[in-house]
Design brief:
InterPro entries: HTH-type_LysR_regulators, LysR_HTH_N, LysR_subst-bd, WH-like_DNA-bd_sf, WH_DNA-bd_sf. By secondary structure, this protein is α/β, with parallel strands linked by helices. Helix content is about 45%, strand content about 20%.
Length: about 325
Amino acid sequence: MTQTMAEPGASLLRRLKNRQLLLLIAIDEAQSLRRAAARLNMTQPSATKLLQDLEATLGLPLFERGRRGLKATVYGEVMTRHARLILNDLDRTRLELAALASGATGRLKIGAVISAIPFLLARAVAALKRDRPRLDVSIDVGTSDALVPMLAKGELDVLLARPLALAGRTEFDYEDLIDEPLHIVARLGHPLMAASSLGLADLASWPWTLLPAASPMRKVLAPLFAEMMTHQPLDVVETSSMMTMVALLQESDMLAVMPADVAEFNIRHGLLCRLNVAVPPIMGSYGVVTRRDRPLSPGTTAFIGCLKDCLVGSDASPPSPECPR
């Protein structure tokens, strides 16, 4: 280990320049020193010297030339990842200071995968805002392959997801919240409402609206459809929007598989009914995902507390009605 790498982090940080961090990110994205320099409005010789000075400071090679341009070494990958974290943290600091100056009491950025307990999330955020009305809260909803990298880069404070979305990544902490079952739902008045008994095989010939084929939930549903039929459903409309899914169910005889939190909300409001078909516990639990290398902000800690309080408060809620016979 070089003397430089043995220095405390604060000492190393004093020797780094913001433009070097920006250059690392630009080279990683452009894979070319010339294009990276142009992106940062500097000359190529200036960019070359910045990179050489950084490598000399660290005592390690950060990039090597390949057939497709500059490629980060293992050291370069680590430095580029932390450069993004440092710059994201600085940007978050700027935004928090601006929020405080405008009367807010901090910022909280929440991510939630598309099917993740949206109404539990809404109850928790509403409770949080009652206690902290000036906390600036934003919610990003999307697929796990988009949101997990956002959490890794520091663009989110906390993520609600199933553990399968993490794919064994060790930079995150995960805490179980709720083991949420799946329901098969249809519109009120659906022909299957008149069936005296139903099994999975009885659903094979019906049209479906489902999350996209590449989504983790859809992949996990494959064994369920294998039990229904010898192939995946042929008559399918895919959508990543639960609202669109509900609208499609209202306008057709389609069926859908929904997490209980989503299904029960629509059932309570008279939009859907649950078919009396047992769905095996194939999805597992939802939980809270945070970055292991960052302390939780006060807003994040308060939000997680509200989630747990809402779970305790919902334990006594009555079960959702099934479709009448």
